[in-house]
Amino acid sequence: MKTMSISENITKLTKQLSEDVTLVAVSKTKPVSDLMEAYKAGQRIFGENKIQEMASKWEEMPKDVQWHMIGHVQTNKVKYMAPFVSLIHAVDSFKLLKEINKQAKKNDRVIDCLLQIKIAEEDSKFGMDAADAGVLLASEELKSLQNIKIKGLMGMATFTENEKQLRSEFQKLKKCFNNLMNTYELSIISLGMSSDYIIAISEGSTMIRVGSAIFGERV
Ligand SMILES: *Cc1c(COP(=O)(O)O)cnc(C)c1O
């Protein structure tokens, strides 16, 4: 069977998605030539999980690309992406939000963020409990951060092919979103990767993060 090219994968995915689902092309570890092939097929949103790698690709790629940081963020590296990052998916502490706000202010920008919520049954190091996210969103301190905007929630499910478990974990995020959305004007649910984005969309995802189904397996 002929394997499909990057541009064919982009075209196929884009056709498959309704307009209210945003595709983030996860290009971590891939060379700029691969990203350019996706760009030429019309893709403008790219996701990376390492700040330095994202910054060097930002320098090389056309300036209308929107860069999403999808990985865990170390506070001391926020400054390297603050001039250009368009959405930070995995914010999981107030301390990190404060640093993003500080660096955004230095760059005279407002940076959009998502709160990462713990949904996986397996023990994951990163992410907040739904209750803590509610407390953070309701806090007075948050209002003082004028250079960040929390746009929604992000989740990482357990690495499993068990559809029942995936659905139950995805539903946890959707429920948390429903509880918070009206009070805080949240609009984005970042959920779903190459192997499970169809299930994620059926459970309410509005933003999928797809890597290997576009660029091929990573080594
Ligand atoms: C790598 C990565 C993805 C994409 O994974 P694929 O299985 O290649 O689609 C999505 N989200 C996060 C947070 C990732 O680190």
UniProtKB/TrEMBL annotation:
N6-(pyridoxal phosphate)lysine found at: 28
Pfam families recorded: Ala_racemase_N (PF01168)
Cofactor: pyridoxal 5'-phosphate
Domain of life: Bacteria
Keyword match Translocase: no
ATP-binding among keywords: no
GO terms for MF: pyridoxal phosphate binding
Ranges of residues in domain Alanine racemase N-terminal: 5-218
Keywords: Pyridoxal phosphate
Purpose of the protein: Pyridoxal 5'-phosphate (PLP)-binding protein, which is involved in PLP homeostasis.
Family named by the database record: Belongs to the pyridoxal phosphate-binding protein YggS/PROSC family.
HAMAP family, sorted: PLP_homeostasis
NCBIfam families referenced in this protein's UniProt entry, alphabetically: YggS family pyridoxal phosphate-dependent enzyme (TIGR00044)
The protein, known as: Pyridoxal phosphate homeostasis protein
Source species of the chain: Ulvibacter antarcticus
